[in-house]
Write a structure and sequence with these properties.
By secondary structure, the protein is of the alpha+beta class. It folds into 2 domains: 114 residues; 93 residues, no CATH class. It is built from 6 helices and 8 strands. The chain has a 4-stranded antiparallel beta sheet with strand order 1-2-3-4, with helices on one face. Helix 1 packs antiparallel against helix 4. The longest helix is centred in the middle third of the chain and has 32 residues. It is rod-shaped. The C terminus is likely disordered.
């Protein structure tokens, strides 16, 4: 029985979408952290220096601060509005540090998701005449299987086939009906279960399958 399950398109695109959104968020944070907010520092510094100077001279009043600030702002092409609490040097520096954190968070989530998408978009698993194989070269024959663990099958659609190769080394073959085309993957699972003894199926019940018409026909083959 030859069935090939390719990745579920919607499942893959979710990873790509999450990855691109997170990377875009990181780029936006980088713009703010390296360009936008640093550009505010000269204005904030000039305001604080002028304010300190005015407050240190008893002869000067608030009106002098406003008047001189208008002159300084005009000379530098800045807004003449007075700098508020969230625009001080300390506040701007704090905003910059947060952007650095957002860059790390965005890239740490986004890059792995994008890489995962491109690494998995051409993957597949398939049944063969006498077993299973995958795109990464893993091939399992029915007589090598000694356990099919369905502990995660009910909730996550993940089944783990345990086998021993020709050298006696143990390995696993994963069937995942969330990652791969669900209908075909489920057919592959039903076929495998029809070809191995039921006692090999652990942590879950066998699926209803139609490949073996008589329960006595189940067995290695």
């Amino acid at each position: 029985m030859n069935l090939r399950a390719h990745p579920e398109r919607v499942f893959l695109l979710k990873y790509l979408a999450i990855g691109l959104i997170c990377c875009a968020f990181a780029v936006y944070a980088a713009y703010d952290g390296f360009i936008a907010y640093p550009a505010e520092l000269p204005r904030a510094t000039a305001w604080e220096e002028l304010k300190t100077e005015i407050e240190a001279d008893p002869a000067l009043e608030r009106a002098d601060l406003v008047a001189q600030w208008k002159i300084i702002s005009k000379e530098n092409g800045w807004s003449a509005k007075q700098v508020q609490k969230d625009g001080t040097v300390a506040a701007v520096q704090n905003k910059i540090y947060w952007q650095y954190a957002f860059i790390v968070i965005g890239l740490s989530i986004g890059v792995p998701c994008v890489v995962w998408y491109f690494n998995n978009r051409n993957t597949w698993i398939e049944s063969t005449e006498n077993g299973l194989r995958s795109n990464d070269g893993v091939e399992v024959s029915l007589d090598q299987i000694f356990k099919f663990d369905k502990k995660k099958w009910e909730k996550k659609g993940i089944g783990v086939i345990h086998f021993k190769d020709q050298h006696g080394d143990e390995g696993t073959f994963i069937v995942d009906d969330l990652k791969f085309d669900r209908k075909i993957t489920d057919e592959i699972v039903r076929w495998i279960e029809s070809k191995i003894p039921h006692e090999m199926i652990v942590n879950g019940e066998p699926e209803n399958f139609e490949f073996a018409t008589d329960p006595t026909e189940s067995g290695t083959g």
